[in-house]
Amino acid sequence: MKNWLLIIVVYAASVGPLWAADVLLIESYHKEYGWDKSYIRGLENTLGDDVTLHTFEMDTKRLPKTDYDSQADKAFAMYQQVAPDVVVLGDDNALGYMLPRLQNEDIDIVFLGINANPRRLMAKYSGKARVTGVLERPLFARSMREIGQMLGKDKLIVKIMFDAGTTATIATDHIGKQYQSLKNKLGIDATIENHETFDAWKASVNSSDGYDIIVVGLYQIIRDSNGNVVDPDKVLAWTNQHSAIPLFGFWDFSVGKGQTAGGVVLFGESQGVQAGEYVNRILAGEEASSISVIYGKQGRAIYSGAEFTRWRLNAPNGWRNID
Asked: Which InterPro entries does its entry note (predicted)?
């Protein structure tokens, strides 16, 4: 009987916590944002029933940058109040603002949705905290290759549009480096843009003669003439209505009827699942610092049947209609 009890205890420790656990998720953005909704769903579906997920929204898609530090201070105060077993940091701003505050805490940290190379931050703020996580990279090369083949273009001429937020700036830098090393191999001619204002965004969409497609990256921090953030749905809807050429996307939340037509896209849910798996391993006894930082699982090719019909496009084999 004693042997059986020992086996049960060892097994339970290998698959999850034997006690109720608290996990604090600090979001860079806000819960209504499509990416956050998606990865939170992945986290919640992966964490055990005995895990309570607490959340704090830094709201950096909507608040001015001057407020980021005070938001991070509030997040740290919540960390002290909750005293979680594990902290999850969602996206670049949460990692950049929270790791300096958490570095000397005896805590395991799992990040997700990180576009920047986290090694510098992890080396600079290498205190007691133990850190691992999941990286996010727009699937530029695969997207351009498959779209070029679909359109039958020997040389695809593409405009890639992002806002000017932290994640967008990091993403365009990464894409720009990939483009310079792969442009001849991929057979593309790309213009990569960051825009701060809706007026500038509109002007670019309206001056796309000579391009085959527009790829809409991130568009959640586009501001009006008064400096207020424009509703992202409005930005995407306007772009869909006024573009004279097909739109494609890098993220799943941008694809659909009245949005972009499709793309090889990243899914927040898969990042949440992978981060959740890491949290479960930590709660079962592993330390975050012993778990390797990984790239997120490769994206999926999806399309809107309505938008493909509108642009008279034929979906490649393996692309999934989400309408």
From this structure: ABC_transpt-TYRBP-like
- Cβ neighbourhood burial of 30 (10 Å; 0-12, 13-18, 19+): middle
DSSP assignment of 17-79: -SS-EEEEEEESS-TTSHHHHHHHHHHHHHS-TTEEEEEEE--TTTS-GGGHHHHHHHHHHHH
d(CA 17, CA 246): 49
Query: In the numeric block, which tokens belong to residue 53?
Result: 């997920």
Which uninterrupted H or E stretch holds 194?
A: strand 188-195
The pLDDT tens digits for 6-64 are 444 334 433 445 568 999 999 999 999 889 999 999 999 999 999 999 999 999 999 99
Number of neighbouring beta carbons within 10 Å of residue 123: 8
CA dist 63 and 72 (Å) reads 12
Give the whole-angstrom CA distance, residue 255 versus residue 26. Answer: 26
Q: Where are the beta strands (DSSP E) in the chain?
A: 21-27, 51-57, 86-90, 108-114, 130-135, 156-163, 188-195, 213-216, 247-249, 262-265, 294-295, 300-303, 320-321
Residues 294 and 6: their CA atoms lie apart, in Å, by: 34
Q: 118 with 95: CB under 8 angstroms?
A: yes
Domains of the chain in start order, with CATH, are: 2-136+268-292 (3.40.50.2300), 140-265+301-321 (3.40.50.2300)
Asked if 281 and 23 touch (Cβ cutoff 8 Å), the reply is no
Q: Is the Cβ–Cβ distance between 102 and 79 less than 8 Å?
A: yes
Q: How far apart are CA 59 and CA 177, in angstroms?
A: 29
pTM, whole model, 2 decimals?
0.84
Cβ 139 vs Cβ 264: under 8 Å: yes
The 10 Å Cβ neighbour count of residue 269 is 19
